[in-house]
Amino acid sequence: MNLNAAQILVTRPAGQADNLCGLIEQQGGVALRFPTLEIVEHPPEAAVLAAASQSDWLIFTSTNAVDFAIKAFNGKMPALPKIAAVGKATAQALENAAWRVDCVPATEFSSEGLLAEPALQTVSEKNCFIVRGVGGRDKLEQGLRSRGAHVAYLEVYRRQQPKIDNSNLVKRITEQQLDAITITSIEALQNLLTMLDSVSAKQLETVLLVAASQRIAEAAEQLGFTQIAVSQQPTDAAILETLTTLFNGENSGRRN
Q1: b/e string for 162-194 if b means 16 or more Cβ within 10 A?
Q2: Burial, 209: exposed, middle or buried (Cβ in 10 Å; 0-12, 13-18, 19+)?
Q3: What pTM did the predictor assign?
Q4: CATH of span 40-159
Q5: Helix (H, G, I), strand (E, B) or coil at 55
Q6: Residue 187 CA neighbour count, 13 Å, CB half
Q7: Where does CATH 3.40.50.10090 sit in the chain?
């Protein structure tokens, strides 16, 4: 299957978009880079870092969490905690740094999938640190606390809206040249709309949006988007598969 020169907006942060853009281009699409999130370091306090290194579990929620936590720990994996990863990409990032992974979801790569793993069923009185960016979801915390765990956060990065020129994107939207948008977080979608003028943002609502999760799809629908598809997993490969399926006449997973 081929993307037939479809112009696809990639909103991943700069430095994290190469793989998806490459996959799109390999399948005959045109990848348009427009990062709507910028990831910057948020150094944790020494006391929090020390407590995390003595915990029972370190639970990583993203590859960004891995990258910045490894920097915070000066590359040295703490000896005591067991280590969990929310998905395959996060687990791979840990393994690439020679950090072991004790728990990763078998199929559903999400907070819900991780909470379903047997290793995290018996955490009563265990000290669990969730490694994440500032202001992430609370689903993991709620699930672990309901099982009697002591939960704290090790926040190692923060997200901010980039300051970039939007003129090329506005031109493509105005001239109806944009065929699809890929979105991997609700915040990325919200930022995209605020980074455009009101007219362009309104026009964008009719463009096919490929969401990396059902939560993002529901948020997009509430924001007024009328053509929404959900990839089976939040991976670049799954997003590409959804795109190629849709652009070859198959509407599986599409909401409109």
Answers
A1: eeeeeeebbebbeeeebbbbbbbbbbbbebbbe
A2: buried
A3: 0.77
A4: 3.40.50.10090
A5: coil
A6: 16
A7: 1-37+161-184+191-211+234-250, 40-159
Strand 127-133 relative to strand 57-60, pairing: parallel
Residue type at position 197: D
| Contact criterion met (CB below 8 Å) for 208 and 229 | yes
Say how many C-beta atoms besides its own lie within 10 A of residue 199's C-beta: 11
Fold of 1-37+161-184+191-211+234-250: Rossmann fold (3.40.50)
Which comes out higher in pLDDT, residue 32 or 252? 32
Query: Average pLDDT of 222-247?
Result: 93
pLDDT, mean of residues 225-229: 96
Q: Compute CA distances 42 → 38, 52, 155, whole Å.
A: 12, 16, 7
Give the whole-angstrom CA distance, residue 198 versus residue 207.
15
